[in-house]
Amino acid sequence: MLSYSKDQRKFVLLMLLPAFGMTAAFFLWPTIYNIKNSFTDLSLLGLREGGKWVGLDNYIALFNDSDFKKVVFNTLFWLTFVSVSIRLVLGFAIALFIESQLVRRLRLTVPLRMAALLPWATPDIVAVTVWKQIFDGRTGVINNKLLEWGFIDQPIVFLGDPSYVWPAVITIIVWNGLPIIVLTMAAALQTVPRDLYEAADIDGAKSWTKFWHVTFPHALPALAVLGLLTTIWTFNNFIYVWMSTSAGPGTFSNVLATEVYLQAFVNFKLGLSSAIGTFMAALAMVFGVIYFRYVVTKRFGGLM
Amino acid sequence: MQNMFKTALLLGCSAFIALPAFAETTISFRYNDPDPEVIEAAIDAFEAENPDINVELERISWGDSRTQFLREAAVGTGPDIVHIAFVWPLEMGSAGALLPLNDLIEKNGAGSGFDNFIATDLARDADGNIFALPWTADTWTLVYMPSVLEEAGVDVPKTWDDLQAASRAVTEKTGKVGFGFPAGGGATNTPWFLLNYHLWSNGHALVEEDGNGGFQVGVDVASLADSFKFFADFMGEGGNPQSNIALGGLADIGSLAPMIEGDQAFALVPPNVAKAMIAAYQEKSGSSDVPFASTSLPTGSVGGVSHMGGRMLGINANSEHADESYKFIQFLISTEFFSDFLTAQFPASKSALAALEYPAGLEGYGMQLPNARTWGAYANGKTPIGTMWSETGREFGAILVGDKTPEEAAQSLIDTINDMLNG
Fold first, then answer.
1. Which of B182, B189, B195 has its CA nearest to residue B85?
2. Any CB–CB contact under 8 A between B239 and chain A?
């Protein structure tokens, strides 16, 4: 084990100090300020005077509000669980295809990797605007084709009909979020030792057996980290839901991030909005700790 | 060498002393409407007349302008002059974001006098502080496509019930859109305006003065539910396509396309949108014909009442150049400014509006403006209008997707407004 002298430790601490300072100034202080605001009735119209201390009133109001439970469900189930699961499965499948022998033989690996990057290169606002046109009930290409081919008699209002709004929003999110999964998993697949496949071939292993016993265990650590990161990024996602549905129709697709915005900048209740933000941070933190401790460290600790 | 040094010193001192005489004051003006080139041309003219004042134009969308300015003003920054909606001056003034203009008005005047402006009750608080000057005026009224009405064999509607019947008939007989409007959730302002017009036209209001200096909800659950139901019935076979439930507002792609393409009979829009529709139609068809006509708002039991809307100009309470800013505001509210530059909008002065000749297609605005009311109690109560607008849109959306009945939505909206008025 390496040992450091007292001076060396001091030097390391000194070098780390700016980073700690920046973290404290730009992360810790805003967090504390937000938590403090969550115990006040601060309004956007009262920023100069500040808010009055209201104790736990904002939190009590949130947890007594039946609509808020729906917002939490939308966030956890539709926005996060469903969209992250689809992205991980689909992204992994696409990565497997890109790194497959067939694609290599056809020399398409690099073009396909570049194609997979395309959604990432598209600005969010452009992506949502284009998707809204694609989903449009009157002129959208999906409705036009479905009508033309006789699959439907009436156009489907993808972003306005409760039966379709979540699938439509998730489609947009999945499209945008796939590149990181595909590229990371493609990189992970390249690290699987080739000799393991050769040994499996000698043993007469079938494709499925090779996937399950060789490919998957090696890909799992990357998939686990991606699962954590993607969950946190998606859980906080505001832009795709707000821009595509404005949390509607009604409040049907309202999620925690859009509720933070609505309470702060539509209803001007910064105190209540801060309470929702604090609740979101707490949920994400609990998820992160559990996931890292029990999924990443315990199950795949030996592989990482 | 010594002489050279003395000369240089003298020149330096002279330049230093002369500097203030040539110094320009720079003021910033944040303008939110989508025609900045008009304002840029006006700024050039203003700067030519006032070489000591430099005006910088800032831009922001209407959707973000209110909250952005409130955040900036709270920390001592922001533009010198702000372009704000009619219902914002009092809330911004009470938040300390806007400078009271009383002294500047007293010293320099304000157009043809402050009382010649419309909607002065929205600019002046109970203590007499004037936080902004009304600049442009508008209201919403009914714009229609005569050719589609003719095709469907329907007349121009006079009442709200006529509009509903005509809209349904247009869709049934021609397959075209009858009365089309964006019907999305909280971010859409259209349900808010429609609902209030219908309530006012039938003698109700979401917010009214209670007679004791306070405010109260001015409608019962049954009447509010009737108004919600009235507009919900337009969806689908009633003439407003279901797809409009996904539209975020009049600015959304697809919102006005059917009107411009001749596939829609009626729209309720402000004048700038009507003008944009006419321009888009003319550009598309390559003709100078005006395809639309407009008329006054449909009537209910007490008439056809719309809102007196428009924009005001205020000075940031943090501005260090209030005099120069006010001078620029005086230029912006002048008759010359509206005749030479901002010809697409109506000035917010009583005398100018009375003398105005409305161009073809916009004649309805001339008919409707005398029947427009200001938001009045809505703006003076404790509930931000943006909040009520958002809640109204969300409740309306909840009805359309079957989450709530009109009665449940009405009860919920009344409870929310009551809570905020009494909170």
1. B189
2. no
